[in-house]
Fold this sequence. Notes:
- With 364 residues, the chain is mainly α.
- Helices cover 68% and strands 2% of the residues.
- The chain has 14 helices and two strands, in the order ααααααααααααααββ.
- Strands 1-2 form a two-stranded antiparallel sheet.
- The longest helix has 34 residues.
- The two termini are 13 Å apart.
Amino acid sequence: MTTQRRYDIDWLRVIAIFLLLIYHIAIVFQPWAMFLGFIKSEELMTGLWKPMTLLNVWRIPFLFFVSGMGVYFAIRKRNWKELIMERSRRILLPFLFGVVAIVPLHFLIFQAYYNLPLGYSAHPAHLWFLGNIFAYVLLLAPIFFYLKKSENGAFKKKLAVWMSNPLGPLSLSLLFVLEVILVKPQVFEMYALTWHGFFIGILAFFCGFLLVYSGEAFWKTALRWRWVYLGLALGMYLTRWFAFDLVAPGYLMAVESVSWILAIFGFGYRYLNRPSAVLSYLSQAAYPVYILHMVALHTAAWVILPLNWPIFLKFLAIIGFTGLFCFVIFEFLIRRIPFMRPLFGLSWDFKTSKIKAVSVLSLD
Length: 364
């Protein structure tokens, strides 16, 4: 198995988490924000939602792709028992902690803002993603380790040949088309706590593993054909915008989603596959920020929305407040207090007193 560090995947994971923050902040300024449990601005920015619909068809499947890639790298040096134990520490522990200690905080902020009766409720909320990943690891581990044992077999050779063809990676979209046809989701972009989200997630997770498993063949294809994948994705998005008022049939959105993801991998491989100190720090921060960001966002909305500021300035201020809140908590509490680190997906090597950065989406 290849052991080369893939910095482009690390960068793309960090960028995806940042886009998740922007996406959730944009919801605050939409008329239906309260139906999703977000504090709603009295002034709206409905035009902001059109670019968000571009993100929404690929942002969650992309993270599942990257998570599946992370498992490929993880099993290079672990057996199945070690993988389950390691993923339990990285994923299950932060998930359970977040459900009982983090999510109720932003629920309470929401209740207080709208003068609702205060009540504690353990709920996965945005952390549903972690619960799904842990389930996928348990379900797919037998297949992954079987493929690991037969890495020099006929299947990998045929897969590598197929991924050398530009239609090879794109053919994965047929699996997502089939999922839409069978599950029939009412809203393609409604992933959280739905069967559609579960099945599209497990497909993306498995496909992410297969893409890395196929070796350099996929990456060379993504690099060479990245502009074609981007053109296809952009063309389908514009068609969805002008022909379907952004609500295209699910099978078209499935193909668009995969096209965006392939293009992103291609451009990331071309421009982002290099180390940096900034990347090292942000890779540590990404997972804790993901867990914390809804508390930060609700706090920001509570403080900033009542101010007599122009609406766009409020939008920018909430972005800045949310980012600063997460940075301060991460830098001065999570990163420096040993017992807090595992609760947010980081680890502490007590034997050597050496801090080790890990993440549910990392390549270790």
